[in-house]
UniProtKB/TrEMBL annotation:
This is Protein-tyrosine phosphatase-like protein. Residues 310-369 are annotated as: Disordered. GO terms for biological process: negative regulation of SCF-dependent proteasomal ubiquitin-dependent catabolic process; regulation of ERK1 and ERK2 cascade. Transmembrane segments: none annotated. GO terms for cellular component: cytoplasm; nucleoplasm. It comes from the Eukaryota. Belongs to the protein-tyrosine phosphatase family. Non-receptor class subfamily. Residues 188-254 form the Tyrosine specific protein phosphatases domain. It comes from Neurospora hispaniola. InterPro entries: Dual-sp_phosphatase_cat-dom, Prot-tyrosine_phosphatase-like, STYX-Interacting_Phosphatase, Tyr_Pase_dom, TYR_PHOSPHATASE_DUAL_dom. It holds the Pfam family DSPc. Residues 356-369 have a biased composition (Basic and acidic residues). SMART domains: DSPc. GO terms for molecular function: catalytic activity, acting on a protein; F-box domain binding.
């Protein structure tokens, strides 16, 4: 059978006859963006965040309720005012207090400011840098850092430069330096850095018996991108704040921070991971509570059966309580006393005549008629 070329019928649609209903593009769709809503209006606006203990996993940091209160400063809310009208360009070179009084955010150059470090009482520094750059603050030291590897072709975790190292050593400041190769490496460091910050705050509190407050400075080259992302991740994971509120809060405290679309998407992915983990451990806690309640009920039913087997059943609860006291919730020694008393034979209660009535009756019988 001979192939006949296909031809369009007179009523068929062709490209020229299609009317575009809305603008469209032929490129691949872009991933959704995480927008920070603008709330500026007349006057000053603020963002208020409050810690949520329900979102803090005790198993993750091995904390009890007392230490959780130390980390969140007694569950005290924090408020950040919009500084758009008051922000000065020179403020980007200093560090700002994000969580009062325990968490700061600023550039790497702040580590060389001895007066600031001592005056604020910083006890720990978290430095986030690109792994391939090193952390040397001097030219020759930085070049040497770039050429070194750990023997497997991977640059080592960077260290502080001479000036910053001198200040931190003189003041006894703990240093946690981490090198990341990109956003994927940064998101893997979030839980580690959050745990280190939490454990440091708890350690300072325990070491000083509550007299000293740990203070952590998080910094990167500018204090505006990677270190700011670490602070946002800390608010989302440890304080249980929503991502949008955390982004706005940090922006209001340090107006020069800048997160690109990729960074905000990675932070959104991290929040989704945390929400899934929270749902899992909260369900586990609910199951544990139900199991404990069922075990308590089973023990109570077993006790009732044991009491009923010796004639101490539920039908005589009022009499039992009158004689022995309520056995429910009794201590082990009380229960032992009850068991010992059950083996004794008690005469029934009799209605005895009033005192002296028997003597008067006897006198009446002997009285001569």
């Amino acid at each position: 059978m001979q192939n006949v070329p296909h031809t369009l019928s007179p009523g068929s649609l062709i490209r020229e006859s299609i009317t575009r209903a809305a603008p469209y593009d032929t490129r691949p769709p872009s991933p959704p963006t995480v927008d920070i809503p603008a709330t500026r209006a007349v006057g000053r606006n603020s963002v208020l965040i409050a810690p949520s203990p329900r979102n803090l996993d005790p198993a993750l940091f091995d904390l009890n309720s007392d230490y959780a209160s130390v980390i969140t400063h007694g569950l005290r809310p924090q408020e950040a005012l919009d500084q758009a009208s008051d922000w000065e360009y020179s403020a980007r070179r200093s560090a700002q207090k994000i969580i009062d009084p325990s968490l700061y955010l600023g550039p790497l150059s702040v580590l060389r400011d001895r007066e600031f470090m001592k005056g604020e009482g910083v006890t720990m520094v978290v430095v986030v840098r690109d792994r391939i750059m090193g952390l040397g603050l001097g030219g020759g030291h930085q070049q040497h850092q770039q050429q070194r590897t750990d023997g497997q072709g991977v640059p080592p975790v960077p260290t502080l430069g001479p000036a910053a190292k001198k200040v931190t050593e003189e003041l006894g400041v703990q240093v946690e330096a981490v090198g990341v190769g990109g956003l994927q490496g940064l998101i893997r460091e979030f839980p580690k850095l959050n745990e280190k910050i939490v454990r440091h705050l708890v350690a300072v509190h325990k070491r000083s018996l509550g007299a000293q407050q740990g203070k952590v400075l998080v910094c990167c080259e500018t204090g505006n991108d990677r270190s700011a992302a670490v602070v946002v991740a800390y608010l989302v994971e440890v304080w249980g704040v929503g991502l949008i509120e955390a982004l706005r809060f940090v922006l209001y405290r340090r107006f020069c921070v800048a997160w690109d679309d990729d960074t905000r998407r990675y932070l959104k992915n991290y929040e989704d991971i945390l929400m899934a983990k929270r749902a899992r451990w909260q369900d586990q806690e609910a199951n544990d509570r139900d199991a404990a309640a069922a075990a308590d009920e089973s023990r109570m039913n077993k006790l009732k059966r044991q009491l009923a087997s010796v004639g101490f059943d539920d039908d005589s609860d009022d009499e039992d309580e009158e004689m022995w006291g309520n056995y429910k919730g009794a201590s082990s020694s009380s229960k032992e006393t009850i068991h010992q008393a059950r083996g004794r034979n008690f005469a029934p209660f009799l209605d005895l005549p009033p005192r002296g009535a028997e003597h008067r009756n006897n006198e009446g019988e002997n009285r001569p008629s």
